[in-house]
Amino acid sequence: MVVELLPDSVLPLAYTVAAILFIQGLRDMTHPRTAARGNLISAGGMLVAVGVTVVWFEVLTPLVLFGGLIVGAGIGTVLALTVERTEMPQLVGVFNGLGGGASAVIAGAELIEISTESGGVAVGSIPTEVAVAAVFSGIVGSVTFTGSMAAAGKLHGVLTTDAVRYTGEQVMKIVFLVVALGFGAYLIVQPDVLGFLQAVWVPSYWLLVATACVLGVLLVISIGGADMPVVIALLNAYSGLAASGTGFVLDNTALIIAGTLVGAAGMILTVIMCESMNRSLTNVLFGGFGETTEQEELDDIYEGNITETSPEQVVMLLEAAQRVVIVPGYGMAVAQAQHAVSELAELLEQNGIDVEFGIHPVAGRMPGHMNALLAEADVPYERMREMEEVNPTFSQTDVVIVTGANDVVNPKANTDTSSPIAGMPVLEVSDAGTVIVNKRSLSTGFSGIPNPLFAEGNTNMLFGDAKDTMQELVNLYKE
Amino acid sequence: MSLITNLTFFVLAAFLGYEVITKIPTNLHTPLMSGANAITGITLVGAVAIAGSGSTTLATVLGFVAVVMATVNVVGGYLITHIMLEDFRQGGSN
Question: Which of A13, A28, A219, B45 is most buried, by CB atoms within 10 Å?
Fold first, then answer.
């Protein structure tokens, strides 16, 4: 017995070690200097958990197991190393979907193992708590899988970035959810009816998975591109919860702890994103913007009030400035202008100008998107300021350069209560001496409403592609 | 292990996660999301158990599929997070 005691405790012990490493890894993520180490610690935890599991279980089919590990590692490495920085959000989405999908598949495989032992799905063949957990991770995992793929498709531009709306869409979603739950109820109760559902391959579970897969697409397709940061964060939480649910199915503490940690992370990010837009999660998921602005209203606001400027004039302004704040938006990411923007900031700093970046929490397509892009372009993170920090400083700022941002600098959020973005905290750039808005045209942002900022007296429009324009500013400023 | 023990782990992990993650600055939200996403690949542990020791062919095949999916999630997720965080470290040293 003594001989068996030791190995018996090795697996749970390894899982505890892994859980500690995950938590320490996340704690190290609280500072940019230690974050990279934190990620390695977390990866170490994963290595311990997976390594011990591989050694622990009697491997009946090593070719399947190691083949799978090698194929998966190969695909993951190639994707991560070849991806363009601008395409990272969608790749994170794809990875997230695969994790959720894997959880759903594993719960199903375990059900098949259980039902094979008892010769089919009959009353009481699958313990209730296992069935409940499997239903949970089946639905959540499948929604995560297809939902993440749909979100990634939107981010990548292969699916429309518009919110796809149709009559009866909410009813459709409810129907699919109810059908999925119906199959789930069958799986939990295991009644002696509908004999074809009692096969050893647990058909009710796979029907549940198929229905939930459709539901995932329906849920995400009706949400617009600019709301994807919230969706990605929420799906991240889902994939964690699916892993946690699978942990209950397999009676595995490593899955429960790690999955729940991630669930909490995703939920917190989701709430932060929603609060920064002053919208409820329900509104993001089921409401969304749809109305297009009447052309007359646009003309009313902009007619005769738009001042256009040139790069030469902007450079003159910059030469006289003491303090400059740069406000980046998704347009900067699309144009890949972050390096030119970073170079401009560095040049200004060399001339003794105080330069900071004002970053709105929902600028871009994922939480912290602007920060990640600017960090890639070697902007020191001390220069990146959150909205609350930078807003009081605009009155002492000579020049604000808005590049590729629109809704996050729209004063209508504060002044017009009927506006779709009413109450959303925005960067109050018009408090500054001069506001330079770099945009390709006067077109509206994602919310579909005009921006009175463009027509204000101290706003100058600098039309053009973000990268080209910023590069031109750099070149002119150097002279 | 009993359901109650598992539930205890669940609740404690939720509170712990909340405490740790609210301390992470906005700056690092993208790598946090990506790193947390890699942690969900922990489901690989379950996949390994099934792929390696599944007693039926169907379960083994499903285990293989799950191992591939989860491994892509784990390896790709940690790598891409590492790449992002290297950017932050360099940005900070300037």
Answer: B45
DSSP string of A206-262? HHHHHHHHHHHHHHHHTS-GGGHHHHHHHHHHHHHHHHHHHHHHHT-HHHHHHHHHH
Phi, psi of A185 (to 5 degrees): -60, -40
Active-site hit among A8, A378, A407, A468: A407
d(CA A402, CA A387) in angstroms, rounded, equals: 14
Q: Record the pTM.
A: 0.86
To the nearest 10 degrees (0 to 180), the angle between helices A88-117 and B57-71 is 160
- Measured between CB atoms, which of B10, B80, B86 is closest to A244? B10
| Chain A CA closest to residue B9 | A257
CB A313: neighbour CB atoms within 10 A?
Answer: 14
Order the strands of the A354-359 sheet from edge to edge. Answer: A384-386, A354-359, A323-328, A399-403, A434-439, A459-463
Contacts of B90 in chain A (CB under 8 A): 375, 378
* Domain assignment of residue B35, yes or no: yes
What are the chain B neighbours of A112 within 8 Å (beta carbons)?
56, 58-59, 62
Q: Is A407 a catalytic residue?
A: yes
Residue B69 has its nearest CB partner, among A25, A98, A265, at: A98
Residue B15 lies in a domain: no
CA distance B64 to A168: 39
Domain count along chain B: 1
CA B41 to chain A, closest CA, distance in angstroms equals 5
For residue B75, what are the domain limits?
27-93
Q: Do B29 and A367 touch (CB under 8 A)?
A: yes
Instruction: Find which of B2, B37, B43 to mutate to test the A interface (most A CBs within 10 Å of its CB).
Output: B43
Assess if residue B68 is contained within a domain: yes
List the pLDDT tens digit at each of the 479 positions of chain A.
333 444 678 888 999 999 999 999 999 998 888 999 999 999 999 999 999 988 887 777 788 889 999 999 999 999 999 998 778 888 999 999 999 999 999 999 999 988 888 776 666 678 888 899 999 999 999 999 999 999 999 888 888 877 788 888 889 999 999 999 999 999 998 877 777 777 778 899 999 999 999 999 999 998 887 788 888 889 999 999 999 998 888 888 889 999 999 999 999 989 988 888 777 888 877 765 544 444 446 667 777 778 889 999 999 999 999 999 999 998 898 888 999 999 999 999 999 999 999 999 888 877 788 988 898 888 988 899 988 899 999 999 999 999 988 888 988 888 777 777 777 889 999 899 999 999 888 877 766 778 889 988 899 999 999 999 999 999 999 87
H/E stretch holding A462? strand A459-463
d(CA A411, CA A405): 13
Contact assessment for residue A297 and residue A444, using Cβ atoms and an 8 Å cutoff: no
Judge whether A330 and A404 are in contact, CB under 8 Å: yes
B8 touches chain A (CB under 8 A): no
Closest chain B residue to the Cα of A269, Cα to Cα: B29
Contacts of A13 (CB under 8 A, 6+ apart): none
The reply to whether B7 falls in a domain is: no
B42 lies within 8 A of chain A by CB: yes
